[in-house]
Amino acid sequence: MKKSLAGLVVLLTLSMTVKSQVKIGFEISFIEPQAHYAEIEMNIGGLNKDYVDLKMPVWAPGSYLVREFAKSVEGFSAQVAGKSVKTEKIDKNTWRVYHAKADAVKINYRVYAFEVSVRTSFIDDAHAFLSSTGIFMYPDGMLKTASTVKVIPYKGWTKVSTGLEPVAGQQFTYHAADFDILFDSPIEVGNQDVFEFTAAGVKHEVAMFGGGSYDKERLKVDMAKVVAASTAIYGENPNKHYTFIVHNFSRGGGGLEHLNSTVLGASRDQYTSEKGYYGFLGLVAHEYYHLWNIKRLRPVALGPFDYNKENYTTNLWIAEGFTAYYENKIMLRAGFSSPEKIATDLATAVSNAENTPGAKIQSAAEASFDAWIKYYRPNENSNNTTVSYYSKGEVIGLLMDVAIAHATKGTKSLDDVMKAMYLQGKTLKRGYTDAEFKTMVEKISGVSFTDFYAKYVNGTHAIEYDKYFGYAGIKIKNENEGKQIPYIGVASKIIEGGVFISSVSRNSAAWVGGLNVNDQVIGVDGNPVEAVIERMPTITDKKVGDVVKLDIVRDGLKKTISITLKASPNLKLVAVLDDQATAAQLLVRKQWFGI
After folding, report:
1. Which residues contact 128 (CB under 8 A, 6 or more apart)?
2. Cα separation of 548 and 565, whole Å?
3. Contact 496, 426 (CB under 8 A)
4. Is 391 left (phi over 0), alpha (psi -120 to 50) or beta?
5. pLDDT value for 16
6. Is 138 helix (H, G, I), strand (E, B) or coil?
7. 109 three-state secondary structure
8. Is the distance from CB of 525 to CB of 548 less than 8 angstroms?
9. What does the DSSP assignment read for 19-78?
10. Phi-psi bin for 390: left (phi > 0), alpha (psi -120 to 50), beta?
11. Could you tell me the pLDDT band of residue 527, with boundaries at 50, 70 and 90?
């Protein structure tokens, strides 16, 4: 037994030694950026097998859709000592290189990049944005192997912005301790406008591409406030440095979190309006909060990642929904919002979630699990069958936060749960399970959350908004209550001057009456439809119970459909801070808002 054990140790040691000797280096250049291509050279040394399998990830962490990045690869080839060697593609995203046990092999391939988003690569003659999971291949079984990346900018490009660690003395050369870090580090190459600020003891770089109406000095001050408010929740900032890559387009939006960086989409002129400017800061708050929530405080299924297939979790309502919720709290604590505004915004969030027909069909946990096939692949019926784990998770965060403050008489909040779970993950060096998160909520609050989970996380129970807002002395009014607002229940869009139905709400008048998506509406009660009509949620000159006759064209054939109008089921919630709130309610409110 001792001999066998000793032999096993020797074998494991030898295996670890072999793996530790593998060296990987990438070189990225741009010969035809105007045609949207990157040239990738990958050098691998220390190999000892007859072949090596190279894999391209199929998805990007933070964006739960199999995107098949391998579809953009072309010109794959390999050389040993300057001579071509056999390669073959063995499945959709794997290339096998036969190097006959040669120690070193060089691989070359090209990647086409022409999709504008925060999660996909884009290259043109102005810049290159490299989303790493769609650029770099990894040797099968070697995700823990370190690598270097050398970027050779196109002529006239002078800057590289990334969260990767620079290699001392080598311009535009970076080091990644493993592929998880490499794949979590986007790269911006070009002539982006770069400025810096320090907050929470961390240097932050902002790389602005696309120009814009932003005021750098104002952004330095205000983004630092967002960083400070976020860090205060957890008591520490896990970064040595952080990079914001911001793409300013004529119309832009969205963001994607990374380990020590983020990619933000913005409209280049939005910074001059109050709504646009604070909207950008809200996006900064959302993505920066992800530094903790999901990048470190994460569901156990989300890391280490399997880049070859879907990674399922039922907890995106925490990872994304709570982040959407904390965006409100961070903006408040940073001084960019008010208690009245946050209460109003959150009341609207409840309305939006409750007004989604799919919220009665799909739970927050189910929405998380099915993100891969539903949230990122919507169709015309999605609103009737699904709920966003962002919007429902935001509401759950609100309810849980206030419930904890109420149960602890204003001494604890969701902040305490999030910090405790972050520290637990840091100690255990892994993500949390569903049960562990619920257990921590109950430990902090001192009460059971079994019924809460049954209703709001795993169930589709109606939100008891009066109860939860009432804990904090906030009155909620449904402005639609008691009103008989005639409602047809469709959305429409203009296509080449025609009005076409784009969605039909479940159990609405249109649903019952048989109106279909893609029907072209050409008349209402015998009157022609004006092309300026973009939405028809209500028929304002009718009453509930009235019959509306819609002349439509379906599949080239004219038809008249009679629809009996129903009353609108939608909530329109408004929140008012009660100036007669009790001392207990004020304690809850203070703990909830954190100001």
Report:
1. 30, 33, 38, 113, 121, 122, 154, 157, 187, 188, 189, 190
2. 7
3. no
4. alpha
5. 44
6. strand
7. strand
8. yes
9. HHH-EEEEEEE-S-GGGTEEEEEEEEE---SSEEEEE--SSBTTB-S---GGGGEEEEEE
10. alpha
11. confident
Q: pLDDT of 172-230, one tens digit each? A: 999 999 999 999 999 999 999 999 999 999 999 999 999 999 999 999 999 999 999 99
Tens digit of each residue's pLDDT (9 = 90 or more) over 549-590: 999 999 999 999 999 999 999 999 999 999 999 999 999 999
Order of strands across the sheet that contains 73-80 = 83-84, 73-80, 104-112, 37-45, 23-29, 147-151, 173-176, 165-166
d(CA 216, CA 210): 14
Confidence check: pLDDT of 460 > 80: yes
* Secondary structure (3-state) at 584: helix
At 12-21, the pLDDT tens digits run 443 444 444 8
Question: Alpha-carbon distance 272 to 516, whole Å?
Answer: 42
Output the six-digit token pair for 181. 């870090």
Longest dimension (CA), the chain: 93
What is the SS3 assignment for 140-199?
CCCCCCCEEEEECCCCCCCEEEECCEECCCCCCEEEECCHHHHHCCCEEEECCEEEEEEE
In this prediction the pTM is 0.93
Compute how many other C-beta atoms are within 10 angstroms of the C-beta atom of residue 80.
18
